[in-house]
Specification:
Blueprint (H helix, E strand, L loop, with lengths): L1 H19 L10 H4 L11 H12 L6 H8 L4 E3 L2 E9 L6 E10 L2 E10 L1
Antiparallel strand pairs: 1-2, 2-3, 3-4
């Protein structure tokens, strides 16, 4: 009996760990929370909101001044991309830094994606 209990406990721990690795609990968008300063590769409230931002708040073709009014100024600008720092995830041996990357063209949003660099 103790071996079965240990096996079940191990399985439950593995499932819980897998669900927590790289997983973000989705939450609604809170503009004030999103606009709080976030350092690169650190945990933040943005982690729970980023999927909502990508799928519900942003639209392809949206003017970038409207995007900036919604999200605040980007944390980094590189060429035709804006980056917003989002989170640090323990998904690999060293972890991943998570950002929201917005691609621009002619002052409008071309593409939004959650990116990881680990």
């Amino acid at each position: 009996m103790p071996r079965i209990a240990l096996l079940l406990l191990s399985c439950a721990a593995a499932v819980g760990f897998a669900a927590g690795c790289g997983g973000r609990a989705a939450a609604g968008f809170d503009e004030a929370q999103w606009k709080l300063p976030v350092r690169y590769c650190t945990h933040s409230a943005r982690a729970q909101m980023v999927d909502n931002v990508v799928h519900e708040q942003l639209e392809t073709g949206m003017k970038m001044d409207r995007v900036q009014a919604l999200l605040g100024p980007p944390d980094e600008v590189a060429g035709h991309s804006w980056l917003y720092h989002v989170d640090f995830e323990h998904t690999t041996l060293f972890g991943d830094c998570v950002s929201l990357e917005l691609k621009l063209r002619d002052g409008r949003l071309r593409h939004a994606a959650v990116v990881r660099d680990g």
